[in-house]
Structure formats: C-alpha cells, structure tokens
Amino acid sequence: MPFSGLVLTEHNFLCHSSSSKCKVAMKMILRQAVKKDLPAIWNILKPWTEQDSTVSVVLENLPAVGEQSHIQCRVFEQDNILRCVGLWIYDTQDQVRLLALGFGPGASDIGADTRFVREVILEWTAMRVAKVIAKIPEMHSAPLIGPLKSSGFMFEGISSSLTEKERAQLHLCKHFLYRTLPRSGVMNFLKEFLLSLGYEVREEGDGFGFRIRSEYRLPFIFSAWHRITRSGSDIIVHPPARVLELHELETLFYPLQIHSRAEKPILLPMEKKRATPLIELPMFENHQDTLFDTASMRHMKVPLNNLTYSYPSGLPGMRKGLPLLFYINRVGAVGSGRVEDWFLDEPKNLYSNLDEMGFFDPEDVKEHAATSGPRSGKVMVIRFHWYRTFKRAVTFEEIRRMDENFNPQRTRTLPWDLFQSIISAGK
C-alpha cells in the first residue's frame, strides 16, 4: 500500500512583501513510520497496548513489514517530536481496521489531531476503501471521539463489560461513498441509510419518521419517533428541530458529493508564490529510508489551517462542502478541495476577527477586494479542507480544449461537467 509523505505547516501563510511583517511558519510532517519512531510510538499508543495484546504484537513486528504489507503505520511529526500515530490493517482490499490511534501532548492545541485523521482518510480514499472500523477502549476514548466524529466516523455501539479484566470498547466506523448524489435524492438516501442501521421507518406527510427497532434497543430504553421533513429546500430533523446541512452528510460519507443545478464548483486561481506554501503541487518528490523500505516518497507542503482569499465572486451558491478547483497561473489546475467555511468582509475586519490573516500580505489582500457594487471594498476568505492534489497539472491549453470559454483570471463558478472533466484529466 504505497504512501506519499506530507509536509504540513501550522499557519503556513508566507508573506511575500518586503514591506510587511508576517508570522513565521511552523512545519509539521505526515509520513510513514521509520525505525527511530518506535520508542515514541510505543509511548503514545500505551493505552492501546495495555488493553489489546494485538496492538503490542503488531508494533513488535512493525520493522519487519514491507511497504506492500496489509499493516500500515503513519506518524505526525513537529520539530522531531511525534504528535500523532495511526496504526491500521487491511482486512480486505476495501475494508480497513483501525488498530490504534493516539495523540501526543499538544496535538489538540494546534488542531493536529483532527488534521491527522483527515489526511489519513484522504489516503484511504485514494485506495478506494469502502469502510473503516474501529474499536476504542472506552476509558481512553475522550481525546479521540471528537476528531473521529468530526471527520465522518459514526458511533455504532459498545462492547460492554462488568469485569475489571475486560474494559468496555466503543465501536465506530467510517463509510466511503464514491458517487454524486442529486439534492432531490437526499430524502430517499436517508431512508435507505437508516434502514441499514436497524431503524424502522414510516411515511409521514412530507417526510418520514424513524426509530430504533425494538429488538435492537438497550434495556430500559424507550425509543421515541424522530422525524425528517422538508421545509422549502431545507431538510429538517426533529426533535429538536434543526436544519440538516448537506455538508454533514458529505463529511459522514466522504467523498460523497451532493449537488443541485443551482450549485456550481468554485475556481480559485492564484499565483504560484502564494500557492506553494498553501497547497501541495503535483510532481514534488523526495527520498527517505522508512520502515517499509519504500524507494521514494513525495513531500507535499500544505498548511495545518487551510485559509485563502480571493475576489468576492461566485457567492450566490456558496455553501460549506462546495467543491473547489485550485488553479495556478502559468501552471494549470493542480488539485481540488471543499469549502469548510467562508467569510466576506473588509480587510481590516478580517484581520481583526481571523488570527490566520496575520500570515497574509495586507497589500495583496487589498488588491483582491471588489472595486464596485454592493461588495465594494470587501474580500472573500475561504477556509478549505479535503484538499487532494492531482497526479499532474491540467494545463490552460487542455482546459480550453474542454471549454473554449474557460477564463482563469478571477474567482468564478465552473460548470459541473467541466469540473469533472478536469478532475478526470488530473488523475
């Protein structure tokens, strides 16, 4: 199972203006484990080895496995200190069993724990994994549940125990759906999914009710009916009533993509000097002697906190989860991601409200402000995630052959068919 190493940076937004002072970048590395990591790995995964002898056996034999082994180990390093460790095994070609996951001191303070989980999910996605399962010792689950659930893992149950010898374990899993779902099909998708989880479903007016089947309920628990209904274009889950956001489902089943005709992917053009410290570019290679004796590894530079800015266009259909296409001037389209959040305001307000703005050149930010209209003086800032680099850049000339009207001069929307064609060309 080949893996490409990643160099990640915390707040890695480099200022290219000699007249502006910007914060100093702090680099982090996501890579395969090497032999020197073993003492730190044992220390971080100690809660697991004390509860599960299987983890100890795997770690003892880790140096002997090869790159193509069904056992894999990843570490997240900062200044030669391991912050995160992940250990897993391929039960089948498309199913992974997470054997252990651990975060060292300080990982959660800088958001490295969640980022580590998501980068590993991206690797599993590249391998076309369909499902990942995990059993987590309940007494050590507190720091792990948040990063796992926010990245698409869901709770499936618990292995209870009333003895001191055996401890309760939490069962979690992550499903991967490699398809695009029309917005009109979300309600039927939800019904099918709930039925697969052991819920009973009944039709109710403009929606449906659902509850755990009686034979699956825990003792002394009564399962009331919950409902999912429509309110205009929104999907409402209740009680308590709240809007079910599309990006929640897209994260739960990543890389699932939900779209409607009114939504279009966003093109984010930028100069190479700004892109280089922000995202990984295709075809950057490095070599490293690893536990798995791999011949070569690529190092991909991306920030721990992914934030970029652009001219405020393409806003009518903007939402969390919307696809992004990253385009580097004089290079081409280099990768894709999704909107995690976005902001529209004057530069001075953005600098006051977002700490990450301190890594940008203020003069360059001002140049991206609208010069007229209702958004005059305002800049769009996008925080993105799930960034995946292309295997090769798709050049301007190639894209023009797909669509003769393609113009990468400014942030704008793209037709879905063109976006998909560019993605396919970059694979």
Give your account of this protein's structure.
It contains twelve helices and 22 strands. By secondary structure, the protein is of the alpha+beta class. The chain folds into three domains: 6-175, Aminopeptidase (3-Layer(aba) Sandwich), CATH 3.40.630; 180-252, no CATH class; 263-277 and 306-426, Roll (Archaeosine Trna-guanine Transglycosylase, Chain: A, domain 4), CATH 2.30.130.30. Strands 7-8-6-5-4-3-2-1-17 form a nine-stranded mixed sheet, sandwiched between helices. Helix 4 packs across helix 5 (142-150). The longest helix has 15 residues, at 112-126. The two termini are 18 Å apart. Residues 8-14, 16-20, 284-290 and 292-302 have low confidence and may be disordered.
Draw up the topology in text.
Blueprint: E1 6-10, E2 26-32, H1 38-44, H2 46-51, H3 53-61, E3 71-78, E4 81-92, E5 95-103, H4 112-126, E6 131-137, H5 142-150, E7 154-159, E8 169-175, E9 180-182, H6 186-196, E10 199-204, E11 207-212, E12 226-231, E13 234-238, E14 242-243, H7 246-252, E15 257-259, E16 266-270, H8 272-275, E17 300-303, E18 307-310, E19 323-328, E20 332-345, H9 347-353, H10 362-367, E21 379-394, H11 396-402, E22 412-413, H12 416-426
Parallel strand pairs: 1-17, 5-6, 9-15, 16-19
Antiparallel strand pairs: 1-2, 2-3, 3-4, 4-5, 6-8, 7-8, 10-11, 11-12, 12-13, 13-14, 16-22, 18-21, 19-20, 20-21
Helix pairs in contact: 4-5
